[in-house]
Each structure stands twice: as structure tokens, then as C-alpha cells.
């Protein structure tokens, strides 16, 4: 069943390892990336209550791992030589199996035959080949060599785009531009969208089509198709049942991180309820700034007691209490007990539990808040630097792995080449040996013929001699006419 895969890259073990979409995004990148995806809200966005999904979705590790391996080019080592089966099919040289149908028949007879496209299940693996096995074990997986050859063959690429248009029409979509891959609704979109919204098995076909587009370097086609589907799902609400497949699978067939981010931010703006959107960037910690001294003073003034303690205004004690009241009204406070001014008892300075904080105490509190803020900023900076460092290490690791893969491929190619050369050498030797044997046989046959010829000539000579001898004997015999004539 096609090529056996041998993974040279370590498979990811968690969702975080599978998805690096938000790894190194900056605000500048975000603004630039989203410039062309800002759209006015649809009338459906104004009626959010009817479109909310109360159940929060969950990410699938198996889906994420599958798409991670796809985006990284199926790291593998295959010693099987490419057969170019998919290319030969697209060049109308062979039929798809097991149905025995040529690509020419599909291009001329299948467009608009929605029953056939819906109910047949063996054609999709041939029309949109991948570097992984499918349900039709007759179909061959792609190879990197075959992809290069396919893209350099005009007939194959032209037929591929025609097939893409047939499938888009089946879904209710039209390809407007063969260069950019721009798509729009087809004329019969209502009927086809209604069918597509209720046929979830076609979402698997769309995922395969998107993967195949990526394998054949049609990244713009991928992006435009996913964007249209997200808009129909989240803005127009015509394909509401497709929401999970579009966000969990379709978006992650796109290899370029910035394009995935653009699509996911577009989806996040229109997803309802927004708190259930699980594909967005990780939440950043919020740092609360400490309140300013003026605000704390205002707050303290509002809390200051309005009553006058006994004896206020009478003699030194009254003056001291009045000073204390003024201090309570003007000094900033912090939570917790505070020390009374010198010369005053606790009962005189605190009133009904209201504490007084000195200016030095206030400065100390401000200093602690500022210090805390600095620590949080420092921690945030260190965290960001750590993330950037990890991202850089991951990229370097990926680059090293890719380099190792390339080296391994080169070694394999070298081994294959040497093996081919050895085979050719053996073949040549065998050919030479056969030639020598043939020549020897021909020589032997020639010698045998010459011998036979010599024998025949000798026999002829002997026969001739015998005949001449017989004639001589007859002439010399006494009763022969010649003898009688001689005597007369």
C-alpha cells in the first residue's frame, strides 16, 4: 500500500508541541497581517444570541499531531523508488483503480453530476493525492520527486486545477482567479451549502483537498478557500455545522504561521460566545498599576470620621485632638494598624479604629508598590525572553533536523545511485557475457558448417573419383563396346 513511512523527526507529545501558530507574534505583525481581513459585520452578527454555541469545544491532540506532521513535510526515509503513478494518471496514461476511469472522463462528464461525486468514495484519493495513505489502498502516496515532476508538467497542473473547480462546484463555490486562487459563491450556492451543511463526511474531503493544494504549492488557494469557509461559518452562518472542522482542521493545513494567525484572529472576532474560542493566542497576564498618592488621599478623606471627640477645641488636649483629626483627614492610609503620632495614646489617635499613617509610612507603601510593579515587569520580561529563546531554540532544532534529513536523503540518494551503478555494471557484465556466449556459439556453428561443407566436398570428390574409376574400368573391360572397336 504505497510507501511505508519511517519518521526521522520525533513526533510531538502534546498540543503545545503540535501548534506553534502564536509562538513569536508582535503587535506590528498583527496589525500588518490583519489589514486585508477587516470586514464589516454581517446582519447575522447583530443577532448573536441565536448563533451562540453553549458547549465549549475541545482541541484534538490526534488532529493536531496529524496536521503538524503534514506541515513539516512528513519527515521520513523511504527507499522505495517513485513510480509516478499520480502523474501518469493526471496525464491520462492510466486509469484510477479500482474503477478503471481515465482523468479525461472525469473532466468531461463529472462536473455537475452531484450524485456521482457524493456517493463514489474511491476517486478522491486519486484526484487529490497526498504523502500519506488513504482509504483507497489502490492509490499511491505522493513522493517529493513526483511533486517536482508534476509541477513541471503543464498537462498535469492544468488537469489538477480543472478537477479542483469540479469539486468547488460540488460544494457551491466558484474559482474566480487561477493565479490567486480567489473563490466566491457559485450561482447555486444556497442549494449546495444546504447540502454541505448536512453532510459532514465532505469535511474530510475538504481537509484532503486543502492538504493536497499545499503539497502542490497552491498556498494562496488554501488561504482563500479557508477564509471563504470561515466567513460562511461564522459571519453568514450558512455552514454553521462546519465550525469545528474549519477551526480544528482547515486552518491548520496552512503552513505559514502568519496566515494561520490572520485566519484565527478573523474567526475570533466573529466567534460566539467569544469566551469559548479556544484557538486564539494565549492570554497575557494583566498587571494592575498601583493607585497614585492623590487618589489614596482622596479615598482617605472620604473615610475620615465626621464626629468631634470630647474636649475638642478646649485647651491643649483639644488642640492636640484637632490636629489629630486634621491629620486623619489629610494623611493617606494603608490597610492594617498604624502607629499614632508621638505624645498621643492609641485611643486619642485612632478614634473608632481609624489608623493614621505618617508620611514616611506612605512613602514606604508607595516604594513597595513600585518595587512590586518592577518585579512583575521584570518577571514578564524574563518570561517573554524565555519564550523567545525557546522559540529560537525550536527553530534552530527544526533547522538542524531538516539539515539532518537532507543529509540522510543525500546519503540515501548516494546509496541508491551506487546500487543502481552496481546493477548497471552487473547488467553490462551479463550482457557482455551473453554476447561472448553468442559469438562463441555462432563461431562454433560456423566451424561446424565449414566442417560439414568440407565433408560434403570430400564426399563429392570421392564419389567423382569413383565414377571416373568405374568409367575407366568399363572402358578397359574385354566385352565392352569400346574394347571391340579398338580391336577392329
Description:
The protein is 60% helix and 1% strand. The chain contains 19 helices and two strands. It has helices at 15-18, 27-33, 61-71, 85-90, 103-109, 114-119, 124-127, 144-151, 154-171, 189-197, 201-215, 219-235, 243-250, 257-270, 293-303, 315-330, 346-350, 359-476, 481-487, and strands spanning 173-175, 183-185. Strands 1-2 form a two-stranded antiparallel sheet. β1 (173-175) and β2 (183-185) form a beta hairpin. The chain starts with 14 loop residues before the first helix and ends with a helix.
What's the layout of helices and strands?
Elements lengths: L14 H4 L8 H7 L27 H11 L13 H6 L12 H7 L4 H6 L4 H4 L16 H8 L2 H18 L1 E3 L7 E3 L3 H9 L3 H15 L3 H17 L7 H8 L6 H14 L22 H11 L11 H16 L15 H5 L8 H118 L4 H7 L1
Antiparallel strand pairs: 1-2
GO molecular function: opioid growth factor receptor activity
Family: Belongs to the opioid growth factor receptor family.
InterPro entries: OGF_rcpt (IPR006757), OGFr (IPR039574)
